[in-house]
Write a structure and sequence with these properties.
Layout: E1 9-12, H1 18-28, E2 34-37, H2 39-56, E3 59-66, H3 70-80, E4 87-91, H4 96-108, E5 114-118, H5 126-132, H6 138-151, E6 156-158, H7 164-167, E7 176-179, H8 197-202, E8 207-210, H9 212-215, H10 220-235
Parallel strand pairs: 1-2, 1-8, 2-3, 3-4, 4-5, 5-6, 6-7, 7-8
Helix pairs in contact: 3-4
The protein binds cytidine-5'-monophosphate.
Enzyme class: lyase
Pathway: Pyrimidine metabolism; UMP biosynthesis via de novo pathway; UMP from orotate: step 2/2
EC number: 4.1.1.23
């Protein structure tokens, strides 16, 4: 669980350049504790940029959704475990051995980096899912993958806000739920399984992940205020 004085909001920095990301963060400084770095900014700025964010005081969520054979994942986790990350994502589709190797590698080195498993991408709907994964209902995969993340010893699972009630009875209450696909109002974009920050928190999200609703807002500071109010409303229960 996040600290009481922190807003459980992770801002996804899916911006074009490192300079754009720095500019946006200057506007939200003091209102935000967590940032998510994805493949683009990691490709541009690498570990150097991660360390810059850590030095600014942000907790960095590196969302690379690693999915590979267990040995390759072990080697990667050993390298990522030493760069000051708050958390790293792995894809639950990689299976138990991959997930367990990651946890063991992290624990062996005494790193505090959290490991979160991706269940089913929030951009999937049934049609897109069944095209890529025929013969398995999306909801069944979601429940099974959430359970697998928990049973393999990960710290948390990433899922859509609408998935939270579906996985609730399959995972222990302490498994952190990190929830993208959060919108104040629909933007008509690629996120299909969405809810408001308030609804996501009420449904059991420990952290909400939001990118475009913040960095594409006409007024970033006021968007942050509205999102903060919605999260706080959700925290009231
Ligand atoms: O801009 P938006 O609010 O849609 O950003 C959501 C972020 O969460 C993106 O960076 C996306 O890669 C990430 N994410 C997601 N669905 C998942 C896991 C991560 O949307 N299942």
């Amino acid at each position: 669980m996040h600290r009481d004085d922190e807003l459980p909001l992770i801002m996804a920095l899916d911006l074009d350049t490192l300079a754009d990301a720095r500019k946006t963060l200057n506007l939200v400084r003091g209102k935000l504790d967590y940032v998510k770095i994805g493949p683009r900014l990691f490709a541009l700025g690498g570990v150097h940029f991660v360390k810059e964010m850590v030095d600014y005081g942000f907790k960095v969520f590196l969302d690379l959704k690693l999915h590979d054979i267990p040995n390759t994942i072990r080697l990667a986790v050993e390298a990522f475990g030493g760069i000051g990350l708050w958390s790293l994502t792995l894809h639950a589709a990689g299976g138990r051995r991959m997930l367990e190797e990651a946890v063991a590698a992290r624990d062996r080195m005494g790193s505090s980096m959290k490991l979160f498993g991706i269940s089913v991408l929030t951009s999937f709907n049934e049609e897109v899912w069944s095209e890529a994964t025929p013969g398995c209902p999306m909801e069944e995969a979601l429940r099974q993958r959430a359970w697998l993340c928990d049973d393999s010893g990960l710290d948390g699972v990433v899922c859509s806000p609408l998935d939270l009630p579906v996985i609730k009875d399959r995972v222990r209450p302490g498994l952190l739920k990190v929830v993208p696909g959060v919108r104040l109002t629909s933007l008509g974009d690629d996120q299909t399984r969405i809810a408001t920050p308030c609804q996501a928190i009420k449904n059991g999200a420990d952290y909400v992940v939001m990118g475009r609703p913040i960095y594409k807002a006409d007024d970033i500071e006021s968007a942050m205020n509205v999102i903060g109010d919605s999260i706080r409303e959700g925290l009231k229960g």
